[in-house]
Amino acid sequence: MITRKLAAALAAGCTAVIKPPPETPFSCLALVELANRAGVPPGVINVVTTQANVNDVGREMCENVAVKKVSFTGSTNVARLLYRMAASTIKKVSIEAGGNAPFIVFDDADVNAAVEGAIVCKFRGSGQTCVCANRIYVQSSIYADFASRLAEKVAAFKVGNGLESDTTHGPLIHERALEKVKRHVDDAIERGAQLVMGGSRVPGKGTFFAPTVLSDVPADALVNTEETFGPLAALTRFETEDEVIRLANNTSVGLAGYFYSRDVGRVWRVAEALEVGMVGTNTGLISQAVIPFGGVKESGLGREGSHGIEEYMNTKFIAFGGL
């Protein structure tokens, strides 16, 4: 997250002040140490680590007139607060906030490819990326086939110590994250969803949650209305293209969306209809350095990567007269 912003800022000739999240400060400090060793001059890259006074630091960065631009990655709720504070000095603002990515599998899809795409899109980082699939919609005629193949793949996962070679998935970032996944699982089951596998905390130390698959999840379940950010694959049936587009767009955020289909006409039609900033068609991986990364609606403003350097520059017009 930091390098996406920092690279563009430095390339545009800006200095930078980084406030890493209190859960993960060391990787940021290591990055800056490497920059120092590489010869980046003192004062160009700066870091403020904080845990107790996060709000005060955020306010200072947003309201201090010396700061010309604020770029934030995080939750939509925090993004609203920072956006409001930055308005006091009318700064440039880039926001990459929450997502709720739909993953759609049409009946003309390559089911094996769709399963592989769902695995990498839903479970990488144990589901803790902003572009992870959050709502998996499968057309009724292939629903059972897709669900069984997905469950077979997930059953082979091993949760545990990342230093062990056969471990496939690690812990969630903190206790609150684990509790949210559990809340989404319990809510879906209470509304009629079926637990295929997982659904609970892994016994022992740490914040490990078993990779989980739910079937027949109703459209109004919490997992379909909130971003889970955990290893929970929730499958919902749909019948028609119009129905699933309506379900996919029925959210206040719009970061990424995915779908599988071998109908070229449908590919263009659905890609244009999805209200998201990034679409993966027949792929579960969209993040690359060269793409314009970002969303629409309450997922944020601006883009990172690709032409993202423009977020750190201003356009100036100079009219020469009297020559």
From TrEMBL:
GO terms for biological process, alphabetical: gamma-aminobutyric acid catabolic process
What's the superkingdom here?
Eukaryota
- Give the UniProt keywords, A-Z: Oxidoreductase
User: Which intervals hold domain Aldehyde dehydrogenase?
Assistant: 1-318
A molecular function annotated in GO for this UniProt entry is: succinate-semialdehyde dehydrogenase (NAD+) activity
GO cellular component terms, A-Z: cytoplasm
Q: In which pathway does it act?
A: Amino-acid degradation; 4-aminobutanoate degradation
Claim: Nucleotidyltransferase is one of the keywords in the record: no
- Protein name, as recorded: Succinate-semialdehyde dehydrogenase [NADP(+)]
Q: What is the scientific name of the source organism?
A: Sparassis crispa
